[in-house]
From TrEMBL:
Highest classification ranks of the organism: Bacteria, Pseudomonadati, Bacteroidota, Cytophagia, Cytophagales
PROSITE patterns named among the record's database cross-references: AMP_BINDING
GO terms, biological process: fatty acid metabolic process
Keyword set includes Magnesium: no
Full protein name: Long-chain fatty acid--CoA ligase
InterPro entries: AMP-bd_C (IPR025110), AMP-bd_C_sf (IPR045851), AMP-binding_CS (IPR020845), AMP-dep_synth/lig_dom (IPR000873), ANL_N_sf (IPR042099)
UniProt keyword 4Fe-4S present: no
Pfam family, one: AMP-binding
Keywords assigned: Ligase
Domain annotation AMP-dependent synthetase/ligase: ranges: 6-357
Family: Belongs to the ATP-dependent AMP-binding enzyme family.
GO molecular function: medium-chain fatty acid-CoA ligase activity
Sequence ranges assigned to domain AMP-binding enzyme C-terminal in this UniProt record: 408-481
Regions annotated as coiled coil: none
Length: 491
């Protein structure tokens, strides 16, 4: 049994999805996902946790494919729609995916994979009605989804979550944030991340609420949708709020007034995936009348900590442990520290992931002996509220809601024939949270625009450095390790 999908049978006639002007009921979603499940199964009775990679823009089709994979007994591997081919191939190869489902707009990009004998290549438009057949019973302890996250190693790791993990994550948020069937949320976040998949889509669909898709962020379109008066819940990363504020400030007084009236009717608004600058929080409150609810989570743990739905939302703090989640702060020896002392956030509970896919050593290293997940984030507890101080690794950059490995970017840049060495760091930035920047060592004249164009063939755009400096050599300590705090000072 997959609880999220079983729930949908309670409200078949309710509208589940609004997409490109079309309305789809929960019954539509159940019917379409069953067609996809039967197509994937073909002559099999159960996919038995075979991995199914799929690249589909945020849409009704995305949800139908995701649910179809789950109902067939597969593990869903959502691919990032902005990745270049090498990044997509890495995920497909690392998960040993048996199937690849491709939306028409990505056919040109993925067509080189059609010839692979180890991969069944399917178009998302090719799923036809199949003879009615019994779908497998799915044990909730089975693997459900693999999402990729940058760690302190150069290559992203696959985070495996079970159906019961996903259910626990949803239940925790539905309780804490008081979701109901009367809610209507705008889904604008990437759907290869826990924020968009769980916090937005899955919580809404669990509750019998409506999900409205806007495939690409556009500030004007977002405000147009808000002005329609139907959306009452909104979740975004700080970068999006920054862009909405910037656009709002270009509008006329009457247009601003219309937006203010619409926003004041919302039930609540959330910011996450990166630290929210207090200046952005205050500006948004002035526009909307809402204090953004900040929360804290990771791909590995879903959401763990949140400011309260009812009660004080404290600027600069991430709040308190969510229902069903245990959180502690520990020193380097693994001992819990008292309030007002800094330490690493560690998390335990049913919301925590199963394993790093195919990486038992990395999985073991990520947990304490008594089963607490080590987040790598340093925090302090002040009057019952957690406040993040930073990461225990300068090689993780949080930019625009993404968690980015500096080591991965360095590896790509060093592959360029003109680059002898490089160092990548994140520097504080009001719009991005942290901005990716790079120091380059080269004995040639390099055109930065040409370098960026080359990097676009190697990396997603959000990982490409926004600023560069040229050095004769990188600053290093006595052991030869690059001193990245010294690099940051150069920017």
């Amino acid at each position: 049994m997959i609880p999220l999908i079983e729930n949908a049978f309670q409200f078949p006639s309710r509208i589940a999805v609004l997409d490109q002007g079309q309305h789809y009921s929960y019954q539509h979603l159940l019917d379409r996902s069953a067609v996809i499940a039967r197509s994937l199964l073909a002559t099999q009775r159960d996919l038995n946790q075979e991995r199914v990679a799929f690249i589909i823009p945020p849409s009704f089709d995305y949800l139908a494919v995701q649910w179809g994979i789950w109902r067939a007994g597969g593990i869903a591997v959502p691919l990032c729609t902005s990745y270049p081919l090498p990044s997509l191939e890495y995920v497909i190869d690392d998960t040993k995916a048996s199937f690849l489902i491709v939306a028409p707009e990505f056919e040109d990009l993925l067509s080189p994979l059609r010839v692979r004998e180890d991969l069944t290549y399917l178009s998302s438009k090719d799923f036809d009605n199949q003879p009615s057949s019994h779908l497998p019973d799915i044990d909730p302890s089975r693997g459900a989804m693999i999402l990729y996250t940058s760690g302190t190693t150069s290559l992203p790791k696959g985070v495996l979550s079970s159906h019961q993990t996903i259910t626990a994550q949803i239940k925790s948020l539905v309780q804490a944030w008081k979701w109901s069937e009367n809610d209507h949320i705008l889904s604008i976040l990437p759907l290869h991340h826990v924020h968009g998949i769980i916090n937005v889509n899955s919580c809404a669909l669990w509750s019998g609420a409506k999900v409205q898709f806007l495939p690409q962020f556009d500030a004007a379109k977002v405000f147009d949708i808000f002005n329609e008066g139907k959306v009452n819940v909104f979740m975004a990363v700080p970068t999006i709020y920054f862009k909405l504020i910037a656009f709002y400030e270009t509008l006329s007084g009457s247009e601003q007034e219309e937006i203010q009236k619409a926003l004041k009717k919302f039930r609540f608004m959330v910011s996450g995936s990166a630290a929210l600058p207090v200046s952005v929080m205050e500006k948004w409150k002035g526009i909307s009348g809402h204090t953004l609810l900040e929360r804290y989570g990771m791909t590995e743990i879903g959401m763990a900590i949140s400011n309260p739905y009812d009660g004080e939302r404290r600027p600069g703090h991430i709040g308190q442990a969510l229902p069903g989640v245990s959180v502690r702060v520990c020193d380097e020896e693994g001992k819990e520290v008292p309030p007002h002392k800094s330490g690493e956030i560690q998390v335990k509970g049913d919301t925590v992931f199963s394993e790093y896919w195919g990486k038992p050593e990395a999985t073991a290293k990520a947990f304490t002996k008594d089963g607490w997940f080590k987040t790598g984030d340093i925090a302090i507890v002040e009057d019952g509220y957690f406040r993040i101080l930073g990461r225990d690794s300068v090689d993780i950059i949080k930019s625009g809601g993404y968690k980015i490995s500096a080591l991965e970017i360095e590896e790509k840049i060093r592959a360029h024939e003109a680059i002898k060495d490089c160092g990548v760091v994140g520097i504080q930035d009001e719009e991005w949270g942290e901005k990716v920047v790079a120091a380059l060592v080269t004995d040639q004249n390099i055109d930065i625009s040409e370098l960026k164009n080359w990097l676009r063939t190697q990396l997603p755009s959000y990982k490409i450095p926004k600023e560069f400096v040229f050095l004769e050599e990188l600053p290093r300590n006595a052991l030869g390790k690059v001193t990245k705090n010294e690099l940051k000072k150069l920017f």
